[in-house]
């Protein structure tokens, strides 16, 4: 099988994003290897050995997606026998011309904390959002809801917690989440009173009953809680309530946490670029 | 100020990664706007209006980073008056040639859950890691440490929790974390007995005393816990213990959670590409 290398003198997150987006265009099975923080000639030479060994072992030329600030280190990588692709390089000239300023490459500008106070504050903002989200997971701390940017609502196991954490970590959004449970009297489901003052910040999550049944069965096999009938009933009741209350909601069955978060942001106009 | 648009018929995460990496090469202040899920001609025409309005309002030509599967929708975006950059387009031909297969663009392949069972299982794996990490946050559930891929160790407020969550969400790594506290007798600091059987999975986090003091002061201003003297003492004791025990550790002061995670992965050889 062909080996794909993602190599950088930083985190290699950009090289991964670039390479994976490219590969998503092709129906091909590959082995992925990331080599991050390749920031000395010695490490670069080691990387070249790994590339050449992968070539010899498989007989298929490795593909290298790389982003380097140091030209000297980049040259060492490009001396390997892999097929090298560098998207920064290609676009730098036209974007420099458009902006009317020369490029000033600097390591770690994409995923690093910058040295300025502004950047440090923007970063702290994200960590604060993570702390807020953890403190407000699963309906705890309702007194803090004034501070929430969004409150995710849903029955048990519909993806509220991972989505909240992703919104906080990725976007610095203070995302609380509140579970609807048996205590909320699902048979006559109303919006819980504590949520009423915050109704405009609420976003509902739901899931196909069959999928909910599968997920709950992993936790409590054979229980009433996990039964398909119960899952169907809860989903129906909660969707009816969302509609009655005018709460926007999303069926998350076929979406990853990245997609759910992006859809919520697109629909609610929460700001993606706070940091 | 110039407006930068990130536009896609999917989450636009790839367009953002591409655009932000490009812009990181230039010392320039801009306004960022993401338009995700632009998947109909109507939405595309609306996007064109927004681009042209941003041009008229600022007098500076907007820059558009876009990734589209649908060529028809892409053409509408490219009819705007912005400067459009499409990195997928440029690299598709050479990579197709290298792979020896034609491209088969498909929406949502990069950040979506694929339809096959394998992809669903890989995705569930990540969500399981998030659940594991939450259940094992802050020293709870020590009985589960057999299952951990990594156990982050450190004194209070050194970034253990955000780093654990990022490792779980981004990489599907089961990351427990354990806090060293007054109860661990910091004056004669030993590796806590419960951690001894798992010592090879432990990774230490530390922070410059001044920075730790600032962070703790936000929580408990003026307390002994937050005092610079106490922070200095704890950091010194814990770093000595890491060295004595041969535990690898990282001073996270100048790094973002992305960088900390990438450095830990690079150093421990935990697998980045599990899904």
From TrEMBL, chains A, B:
GO terms for molecular function: ADP binding; ATP binding; phosphotransferase activity, phosphate group as acceptor; protein serine/threonine kinase activity. This is Putative phosphoenolpyruvate synthase regulatory protein. Keywords: Kinase, Nucleotide-binding, Serine/threonine-protein kinase, Transferase. It holds the Pfam family Kinase-PPPase. InterPro entries: Kinase-pyrophosphorylase, PSRP. HAMAP family: PSRP (MF_01062). Its EC number is 2.7.11.33, 2.7.4.28. It comes from Pseudidiomarina indica. It is an enzyme of class 2 (transferase). PANTHER family: PYRUVATE, PHOSPHATE DIKINASE REGULATORY PROTEIN 1, CHLOROPLASTIC (PTHR31756). ADP binds at residues 154-161.
């Amino acid at each position: 099988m062909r080996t794909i290398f993602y190599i950088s003198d930083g985190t290699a997150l950009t090289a991964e994003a670039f390479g994976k987006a490219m590969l998503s265009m092709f129906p091909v099975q590959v082995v992925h290897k990331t080599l991050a923080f390749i920031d000395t000639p010695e490490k670069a030479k080691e990387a070249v050995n790994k590339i050449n060994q992968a070539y010899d072992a498989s007989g298929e030329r490795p593909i290298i997606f790389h982003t380097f600030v140091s030209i000297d280190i980049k040259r060492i990588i490009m001396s390997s026998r892999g097929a090298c692709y560098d998207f920064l390089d290609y676009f730098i000239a036209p974007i420099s011309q458009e902006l009317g300023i020369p490029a000033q490459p600097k390591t770690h500008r994409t995923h690093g904390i910058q040295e300025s106070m502004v950047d440090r504050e923007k970063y702290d903002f994200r960590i604060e959002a993570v702390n807020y989200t953890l403190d407000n997971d699963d309906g705890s701390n309702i007194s803090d809801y004034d501070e929430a940017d969004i409150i995710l609502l849903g029955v048990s196991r519909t993806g509220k917690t991972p989505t909240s954490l992703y919104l906080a970590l990725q976007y610095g959004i203070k995302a609380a989440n509140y579970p609807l449970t048996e205590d909320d009297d699902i048979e006559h489901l109303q919006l819980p009173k504590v949520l009423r003052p915050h109704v405009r910040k609420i976003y509902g999550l739901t899931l196909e009953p069959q999928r909910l049944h599968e997920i709950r069965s992993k936790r409590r096999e054979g229980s009433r809680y996990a039964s398909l009938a119960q899952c169907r009933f809860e989903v129906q009741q909660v969707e009816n309530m969302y509609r009655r209350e005018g709460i926007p909601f999303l069926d998350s069955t076929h979406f990853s946490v990245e997609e759910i978060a992006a859809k919520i942001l697109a629909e609610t106009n929460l700001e993606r670029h706070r940091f």
